[in-house]
Fold:
Amino acid sequence: MQYHAEFGRLCAALEGAGAFLVVEDAKGRVNVMTIGWAQAGYIWGQPVMTVLVRPSRYTHSLLKTAAGFTVCVPAPGKLAKELAFCGSRSGRDYDKVRACGLKLAEGAEKGLKYVEGCELVYQCRLTGTSELDVRTLPAAEKGRYYPDGDPHTLYFGRIVKAESNR
Ligand SMILES: Cc1cc2nc3c(=O)[nH]c(=O)nc-3n(C[C@H](O)[C@H](O)[C@H](O)COP(=O)(O)O)c2cc1C
Structure:
């Protein structure tokens, strides 16, 4: 599918139970965390998915040497327990793939794995990062989302493949 074809469904998931962010580092360590913040659009002449990950997340440490990431959106109401688990437990303490019984499949490029059975899958090759400058935010957002710091890193991923199983 074209990367923007299911934009509404992607946003509904992000605003709801979330989506899985799957990252494999250069050593082959794989982790799944739930995300609610992401953007899909067109930058540098290519379709790009941007995910926002706080430095405190285990996922953040894996992203240092990762080739990319995948964003996997279950069908509405599906895998809700798994999304909740992956959004509240750290890969430092759990093998979340095993604990949730998730099946991972190999993506189109090396280092890209995705959760099987999801409705939408975006496979993304890392093309850059940026640190959020919290000082530029309105006071309300700063106070609500960053009372203890830990500002997100933005990871830009070129969407190399977007799939819909609807
Ligand atoms: C619905 C939902 C959405 C979330 N969205 C994000 C997000 O966009 N960015 C982020 O850094 N953490 C987000 N989190 C929190 C992480 O998923 C959570 O801290 C997780 O345990 C981190 O896993 P890790 O340490 O294995 O990387 C979200 C949690 C939930 C439940």
Summary: The helical segments are 7-15, 58-63, 80-86, 96-100, 139-145.
